[in-house]
Specification:
Length: 61
Amino acid sequence: MPRPYSVDLRERAVAAYRRGGRTLEEVAAEFSVCSKTLAHWLKLEDGTGSLEPRPRGGGNL
């Protein structure tokens, strides 16, 4: 499973979008992330006030 994006990248991308003047797709392309990922980060920050990634599961198979 790939590592989560850094909190720094998440914060910079969200801040760039919130400054306005560009679409979600334009900002996502600038930071090399999917527009759905950026939309998820915006929703996450609005809901929790944080952009920390959720803990990853480590269940036994």
